[in-house]
Amino acid sequence: MLRGSRLPLWPWVLLLLPPPPLAGALEPRGRARPEEAAEEPGSGRARPAFQDLQEQLRAAIALTRRYWALFTCRVWPETCGQDGKSPLAWSLPLLGQQYLDILTTWYCSFQDCCPSGDCRISNNLTGLQRDLSVRLHGQHLARELVLTTVRDYLALPRPDKALALSFHGWSGTGKNFVAQMLAENLYRDGLRSDCVKVFVTMLHFPHPRLVGLYKEQLLDQVRETQERCRQTLFVFDEAEKLHPALLEALGSHLERQAPENHRAESPRTIFLFLCNLGGSAVNQVVLELLRAGRPREEVTMEHVEPRLRAELAASPDSGFGRSRLVKENLIDLFVPFLPLEYRHVRLCARDAFLSRGLPHTEETLDEITGTMVYVPKEEPRFSAQGCKSIAQRISYFLP
Ligand SMILES: *[C@@H]1O[C@H](CO)[C@@H](O)[C@H](O)[C@H]1NC(C)=O
């Protein structure tokens, strides 16, 4: 990873120094400051016989102090100034930044150095709340349920069970979007994190005859990821198409663990199952309410959940509804994603322009929103594809 020949002197100087004890590093005047450590009399690195080397080291260490400040600031954010900035307002050249990244990753690979105890895990609930309320449209139930359930789960000191959520709704209503928001706010590297795994049924497990092999691979991947990270996220897209044997195999991961199985560091696992199944039941509930002249925000879990469960149980061609995940209540929460109306799709179109930094007019937004198909035929209310493909459609409307 480190390409030695091209490294300047300072990272090596830093590597030679003993890592500071955490308590020392938390104090600005901690005793393991690099310059003090290196200037200790009798230290093998600064013998009088090597005057030149000593001079060079001094120079390097002076530079290192600055890097050191930035490094400790990354690794122990508490040591930074009030405003979250480094004590030395000094911007690194790009190359220095890269070395700092390498060093931080290296250090954090064997040290607990972030508030979460692992720099890969960010658990930014403020960010999650913000994303759910600003970027997700028309989903008052999902917004509330996902935030509170995840927040409560992450607050448990010793969870005895993985958290399992299943998202139900038509395509384009935001199920993938919310899964992505969770990955981005709970993990520094989002969906690319080594703590996050996404499985798409038709992509990862396409052939029913290979299900034995898939099962082994799936369980291996789950285990390996859990060994690597003490907080993991597994996303199963197209969960309604998962083979019953795979669902069965996942069941053991969702069961409550006996207390003696608890590891000291209390690992946390979140499973998300994204399912188109159940979408019709959800849509029907919303449609009935709208027909009665009520706003969709009045839809509650009491309205939706029984109908959703009934649709899952009644679907003959999907293993999900009849798997032990559903039957034995291993799913902690069914999250309904409501069908989107014209005004929601319009917001998606606006977001698409804003996120690409492109100008737009109210007329353009209306035009794009108008290109979507709305159902049911006799009283078109819901976008058949939700907000799917809106981002691509804006290309046709650019000036
Ligand atoms: C959490 O997310 C918010 C909003 O996206 C962001 O402003 C903030 O910097 C994030 N906090 C951390 C610690 O990353």
From TrEMBL:
GO terms for cellular component: endoplasmic reticulum lumen; nuclear envelope. Gene3D superfamilies: P-loop containing nucleotide triphosphate hydrolases (3.40.50.300). It is found in: Cytoplasm; Endoplasmic reticulum lumen. The keyword Translocase does not apply. Its main location: cytoplasm. Residues 161-293 form the AAA+ ATPase domain. Residues 1-25 form the signal peptide. Residues 26-46 are annotated as: Disordered. Pfam families: TOR1A_C, Torsin. The keyword ATP-binding applies. Keywords: ATP-binding, Cytoplasm, Endoplasmic reticulum, Glycoprotein, Nucleotide-binding, Signal. One of its GO terms (molecular function) is ATP binding. Belongs to the ClpA/ClpB family. Torsin subfamily. PANTHER family: TORSIN (PTHR10760), TORSIN-3A (PTHR10760:SF3). This is Torsin-3A. It comes from Phyllostomus discolor. The gene is TOR3A.
